[in-house]
Specification:
The protein has two helices and no strands. It has 90 residues and is mostly helical.
Length: 90
């Protein structure tokens, strides 16, 4: 039984643009996460302040980081797919 590859592997003309987007999103997330770490290191009492619904800043910021990572993943996937479709036409 002969098994062919599911997709044809060829050169990805969008690779450099996808890499650039990935690096931009990485540094954006790193800066936002660094803010969380800096608050925790320099002003830990701020993390205990209650904001929304009785939740403290640490919980809100922490869940915000998780949601941001998920949203950035969807953004990355959307734009990479768009770039691949545009630049890898045969």
């Amino acid at each position: 039984m002969l098994h062919e590859p599911a997709v044809v592997i060829s050169t990805d003309n969008a690779a450099s643009k996808k890499s650039k987007l990935g690096i931009i999103l990485f540094f954006a997330y790193t800066i936002i996460y660094s803010g969380f770490v800096l608050i925790g290191l320099t002003k830990p009492e701020l993390m205990g302040l209650e904001l929304i619904g009785g939740q403290n800043i640490a919980i809100i910021y922490g869940f915000g980081l998780i949601v941001l990572a998920i949203v950035m993943g969807f953004v990355y996937n959307y734009f990479c797919t768009k770039m691949e479709n545009k630049l890898n036409k045969n």
